Amino acid sequence: MTLKTILLGACSALAFAGLASAETLTIATVNNGDMIRMQKLTDDFTAKNPGIELEWVTLEENVLRQKVTTDIATKGGQFDIMTIGTYEVPIWAKQGWLLPLDNLGADYDVDDLLPAIRSGLTGEDGKLYAAPFYGESSMVMYRKDLMEKAGLTMPDAPTWEFIADAARKMTDKSNEVYGICLRGKAGWGENMAFLTATANAFGARWFDEKWTPQFDQPEWKNALEFYVKLLNDAGPPGASSNGFNENLALFQTGKCGMWIDATVAASFVTNPKESKVADQVGFALAPDTGLGKRGNWLWAWNLAIPAGTQKQEAAEKFVSWATSKAYLDLVASKEGWANVPPGTRTSLYNNPEYQKAAPFAKMTLDSINAADPKNPAVKPVPYVGVQFVAIPEFQGLGTAVGQQFSAALAGQVTVDQALQSAQQLTTREMTKAGYIK
């Protein structure tokens, strides 16, 4: 055997060993713009971690929630990293379904995470169980040109009465311009995120202090009637099928006068490459009714590692990379400071470059800080959570109630019928689960 043959054989063996040792991380994520951008930038990660390959499973929000919940509850082991929300983290951590993120690296700076966001991702043992990719509240995004044309000026802190009046005045259905776009698609994290936060402002609550459902109370009727009438008068056709992404597309193409939704959308609606109305967008706090609560929520999409993974070390490296200060710098260098994932780090909001590039920065931070998960409603409640109720049963309950309310918006049932059904199904499930004695 020649030396050349021996060397070639050795090289082949080394190459094979390298292939055999490469780890593939399977990552489940949501099809939102910031996550799509992250996937395009992962060459930076794989260049720094040549032994790790990435496989993406990108899903629509409702489908993602269903898939990851089923997988983790049945110990399916399909994913090494999951994109999950503020709702799931404390519940799943308590169940022992998530690994604590103890090894994110010396330069990760956990203390830089915004306190309001970090507290929702911290377990009872004080450990971090998910790292925030972006954080959000909700706010009003509106067309300044259409507001002016209607002869109105948007206050920094509007009432729902003002919003409704403005929406009707801005509507021009013959030209496919609708005064307001709001979530109507059924789902606990779709229409019910919006409606639960809105109902808080109307004085409604999911449960009283004894866990009795409250859909038979006048506050819920006022909130749901207001919402259905407003969208029927001033919303786009087919509103009961519209979630975050559908309304984003409508707003960007100039078809919405106002859109009340996640603060994370601000960078997309003001991006001239993506939005036809980028230079006309203004921002205001989520509306209230004068009762002391605004309709703004608190949420983060986070990266978490399921306890069943066999690839913890590699998964921690990816989570650290995607939620680090360095990642924000990477996005800024490629896409500009206005497009970095918002709502996670104090240092971002202290950065003069970001403040200059993102006219929505202060309103986003103010909205996040204004949300109060421990006191979300006007009346006392036994639960934590602004746009959700932090109990395991809420995922099923929220979606079932959301289907009733979406049907009311579509005109398939009356508001009274939807509320009666919501009251009955929630009472039944809460009794079965042992909350109601």
Structural write-up:
44% of the residues lie in helices and 13% in strands. The protein has 437 residues and is an alpha/beta fold. The strands form two sheets. A five-stranded mixed beta sheet has the order 2-1-3-9-4. Helix 18 packs antiparallel against helix 19. The longest helix has 19 residues, at 3-21. The N and C termini lie far apart (83 Å). 47% of the residues are buried. Mean pLDDT is 94; it is low at 3-20.
Instruction: Calculate the terminal CA-CA distance, rounded to whole Å.
Output: 83 Å
Approximate shape: globular
Number of helices: 19
Q: What is the number of strand segments? A: 9
Rg, nearest Å? 23 Å
Oligomer: single chain
Helix/strand-derived category reads alpha/beta
Task: Tell me the helix content.
Answer: 40-55%
- Overall mean pLDDT stands at 94
Helix and strand element order: HEHHEHEHHEEHHEHHHEHEEHHHHHHH
Largest sheet features: 5 strands, mixed
Short description:
By secondary structure, this protein is an alpha/beta fold. The protein contains 19 helices and nine strands.
SSE blueprint:
Elements: H1 3-21, E1 23-30, H2 33-40, H3 43-48, E2 52-59, H4 61-73, E3 81-85, H5 88-94, H6 115-119, E4 131-136, E5 138-143, H7 144-149, H8 160-170, E6 178-181, H9 191-201, H10 218-234, H11 244-252, E7 256-262, H12 266-269, E8 281-285, E9 299-304, H13 312-322, H14 325-335, H15 346-349, H16 352-357, H17 361-370, H18 394-409, H19 415-432
Parallel strand pairs: 1-2, 1-3, 6-7
Antiparallel strand pairs: 3-9, 4-9, 5-7, 5-8
